Amino acid sequence: MIRHILVPLDGSEYSEKALVFASELARTTGAHISLLTVILRFGAVLPNQRQLEESSHFQVHQYLQPIRERLTSEGLDVSASVDFGNAADAIADFARQEGVDLIVMSTHGIGSRSTYALGSVALKVLQIAPCPVTMQRVVEPASSRRPTAQARLGSSIAGAAASDG
User: Fold this and answer.
1) What is the pLDDT of residues 71-82, one digit of tens each?
2) Do 102 and 135 touch, CB atoms closer than 8 A?
3) Cα end-to-end distance, the chain, whole Å
């Protein structure tokens, strides 16, 4: 039985394609949905790292909160979290620690390249996840009318995340 669904979001329109399937499944099963955005953390300690992380956390929370509120207003049980680190590892760790039954994610996110079957983060999550993973295939281009992930999350956050996946 599915009681807990994880939907990783990276700020891109591509990643949000997974929300449709996840919310329909949650309505059917009564499952809780956890939204998760992972901000790339570099290995080296940077000057003012704490301030950078606090600012990044705030910007990502500003992105996730309206999505959570919209889904909650539709009667779903939804939480939103922000983590730091390597995206695929953080997604798998969150799933393991929180007892996630299913990860629902798009095949591509910020680093979308139509020539690959799966994005690098999606492929790694599929390989290391502690639970089943459902991939929402992204075939159409993102809308040119919507802001980019960089504009939605803040250019410094999304720019760093783009290099990770």
Assistant:
1) 999 999 999 999
2) no
3) 31
Helix, strand, or coil (residue 106): strand
- Alpha-helical (H) ranges within the chain are 13-16, 18-29, 49-73, 87-98, 120-128, 149-153, 155-162
Contacts with 7 (C-beta within 8 Å, 6 or more apart), sequence order: 18, 19, 22, 33, 34, 35, 36, 103, 104, 105
Dihedral over Cα of 148, 153, 156, 160: its sign: negative
Report the C-alpha dihedral over residues 14, 16, 20, 23, rounded to 10 degrees: 150
Say how many C-beta atoms besides its own lie within 10 A of residue 41's C-beta. Answer: 18
Total residue length of the chain: 165
Rounded CA gap, 69 and 78, in Å?
8
More confident position, 107 or 104:
104
> What is the C-alpha to C-alpha distance for residues 8 and 18, in angstroms, rounded to an integer?
9
Structural domains of the chain ordered from first start: 4-162 (3.40.50.620)
> What are the respective helix, strand and coil percentages of the chain, to the nearest 5?
45, 20, 35
- What phi, psi does 90 have (nearest 5°)? -65, -35
What pTM was estimated for this model as a whole?
0.80
